[in-house]
Amino acid sequence: MSELFLATLTLSHFRSHKQARIEADGRPIGIYGPNGAGKTNILEAVSLFSPGRGFRRSSAEEMTRRPEALGWKLTGIVETPSQPREIETWSERGAARSVRIDGKSASQLALGSVTRVLWLIPSMDRLWIEGAEGRRRFLDRMALSFDPNHAEASLTYEKAMRERNRLLKNQMRDAHWYAALEAQMAEAGHRVHVGRQNTLDHLRSAQAQVETAFPTAELDLVQTEGAMPETADDLRDALAESRFRDLAAGRTLVGPHRADLHGTFAAKGVPAKDCSTGEQKALLVSLILANARALAGDGAAPILLLDEVAAHLDQSRRSALYDEICMLGAQAWMTGTGPELFAELGARAQYLEVTEEAGTSSVTAQD
Fold it and tell me: Residue 12's beta-bridge partner residues?
């Protein structure tokens, strides 16, 4: 049984769920039902127990149940290695979402010190062949799992960069306008870069520890052009030196926002972007498991959200995935269209059936 898991989850007017309460005991959870029944909405709700906008990156207004549009609320008891924690998060009539931890108002970033949530969802299947922004976000999510402060550094950097870009677009040339922003970007940007590099080290170590049914991914962090300055002072100097070039471009051309994550199928020496669809999926599963393994070795395994993953794996790999999840002691919330997709788990998991009628989802625990 996991030392970190969501013991209860209550959904109120969240997407297709008017009201639902789920009780869990730390085992993996197989959630099945027809397409459109509301299975993924449950996983999205769990993803909101971590910093950010959830795995769909939706606005608070988009998550509210229609047609009522009253707002929504999620409440959960999170069992941690030290003590149970109560988390509430909600939005009233489209307002920005609020968070309360143990009855006290908190920031979304504070959720990172309570829970660690990783996910793999269908929209990530194109990670290796689409733009670098998605890969940076993928890496930063993993970095956040190791260091809750990573999100704060990323937000600080992005905010200062937006201000600098505004100056650049307005063709401001006074150095004094840039100096403070560049100092802030340099300090936060260096922290982001170091956090990403440390995350890659964790993943490499975790992949080297065991042999699994999933392929090892060799990972490298590269810059779009040139190299990332190694220190905060170097990054500040690079930003200052790049002002004239950035003025011409109307945007900042140096910094961690210009990084890209490159992956290679290690056994074949083939770049991930050139692998088959099945191989790309297997590489993503491998990285999520490596991330979870590294976290488990440093405390407690994270909560995993695996949306429709089982349907894309053959029986042997599906069985291997379940075995590794159970070996890690991770609470994994997994979706599929039918119970047969979780047959290899047997009594090692809990099961929920989700049905939908007239736009309202119902959740029923199964033996």
Answer: 19, 73
Pick the last residue of a domain from 246, 281, 299: 299
Is residue 329 within 8 A of residue 322, CB to CB? The reply is: no
Based on the fold, state whether residues 13 and 78 are members of the same structural domain: yes
- Between CA 258 and CA 228 the distance in angstroms is 9
Question: Mapping DSSP to helix (H, G, I), strand (E, B) and coil, where does residue 298 land?
Answer: coil
229: left (phi over 0), alpha (psi -120 to 50) or beta: beta
Residue 311 has what pLDDT? 86
**β 17-23/5-14 pair status:** antiparallel
CB 89 within 8 A of CB 14: no
Cα 89 to chain center, whole Å? 18
Q: pTM above the 0.85 mark?
A: yes
3-state percent breakdown (helix, strand, coil) of the chain, nearest 5:
45, 25, 30
User: Rounded to an integer, what distance in angstroms lies between the CA atom of residue 356 and that of residue 361?
Assistant: 4
Sign of CA dihedral 27, 33, 35, 39: negative
Q: Say if residue 67 is preceded by a cis peptide, omega within 30 of 0.
A: yes
Place of tokens 């309202």: 360
Residues 134 and 59 in one domain: no
Q: Which of 299, 315, 332 is where one domain is finished?
A: 299
pLDDT reported for residue 148: 93
Q: Which domain holds residue 1?
A: 1-116+302-367
Of 71, 73, 76, the C-alpha closest to 12 is 73
pLDDT digits (tens, 9 = 90+) for 237-265: 999 999 999 999 999 999 999 999 999 99
